[in-house]
Amino acid sequence: MKYFSVIYRLNILFLFFVILSAGTEEAPEDKPCDTAVHIGGQWFLAYRGNIPSSGDNAFGLKRGYLTFKKNFNESFSVRYTQDITIDREGEDAGNVEIRFKYCYLKAGLPDFLFFKQPYVELGLVHQPWIEYEQKINTYRVQGPMFLDKFGVTSSADFGINLVSLIGPELDEEAKKKVDSEMPGRYGSISLGIYNGGGYSALEMNNNKTLEGRLTLRPLPGFMPGLQFSYGFATGRGNDTLNSKFNYNVFMISHETAKTTFTAQHYSGTGFHGGGAEGINYGFSFFGELCVPFTPFTLFGRFDSFRDNVCNLYSSLTFNGDEIHTKTYIAGLAWVFYKKNRLILDLEKRREAVIPSPLSSMSPTYSDEITAELALEIVF
């Protein structure tokens, strides 16, 4: 049945490509196209201190992205993004490390039926879920999104990614209240096939991972900010043992000009990077509230992730032992120029290792609190 499920999803993906590529709508008349090279950046600089002080206690660069974009014409464009961070391993620890985050060709496809403004990315491309979530929860400066944080999936990988709006775009008034990068009146869809290990890993096996996302906007006229989203992945973890990997995630989100709220539930087996194939599940809540008549925003998040560990690379196995991690985040953001902002936040992380009922060991707990002052620079 599992193999049938994979084949079924691949067939759906194939049919979706065929339908889009078979569109018969006439191409629009030639319009002036901006073919200049555009340069943009996003930097996360921060001072972080841990309680107890066994971890960070320093100024540093959390992340730095430098992006180059160029349109060839109305249909084809390219993007190249550098991911700049600090190397924390080996002899080069402390040095600035540069790697690719995105490097792809983007090709526009013709509209067909209710699929509007479809396009395909080829190369080092976006993955469906994290890219979408980051458009709603814009606090990547504070830390990774829920599934990225716990190593379930990544934001980019080598492969092919197909994206389309569902229905025409929302009107201009509605787009002021919601994420304007996926403004389909009835939602959006994204499907892709990837190496599976993420943009920072080598391909360790011949397996390819199928991932997708479907978002529906049920009340575009009355409540355009309300969306229901489903994401999935199926394949094998990125290791030589081809460990099991799949997940399902559901999210409800609501956006207005002054507020954002998301709630998601996740369940799966293994991780995209491989190494374990225990059952894991969890949920996450995020909220944002703009303080009226001020440039300040309050935000908070709660994550709960349970992992039934099974380590494939060790003679020691922990079947039945559960690692339960809870994270509490609260912060204040000051938007001082467009999307540039200064953020003060606190994060408490509690990890509990709960032995199986057959074990005579007692649960163990560890707590860590991180205080952070972070600066997000966007240009």
List keywords for this structure.
disordered N terminus; Porin; 379 residues; 16 strands; globular; 10% helix
Structural shape: globular
Sketch the topology as an H/E string, one letter per element: HEEEEEHHEHEEEEEEEEEE
- Taken as a percent bin, the fraction of beta residues is over 45%
Number of strands: 16
Cα-atom radius of gyration: 22 Å
Question: Please, how many helices?
Answer: 4
Q: For the record, what is the CATH homologous superfamily label?
A: Porin
Give the oligomeric state of the chains in this entry, treating copies of one chain as homo and distinct chains as hetero: single chain
What is the average of the pLDDT values? 87
Sheet with the most strands, sense and barrel status = 16 strands, antiparallel, barrel
Helix content: under 10%
In total, the number of domains comes to: 1
Q: What would CATH call the class?
A: Mainly Beta
* Unreliable spans: 1-28, 310-318
CATH names the topology as Porin
First-last Cα distance: 49 Å
CATH architecture: Beta Barrel
Spatial ordering of strands, largest sheet:
1-2-3-4-5-6-7-8-9-10-11-12-13-14-15-16
Instruction: Determine the structural class based on helices, strands and strand pairing.
Output: mainly beta
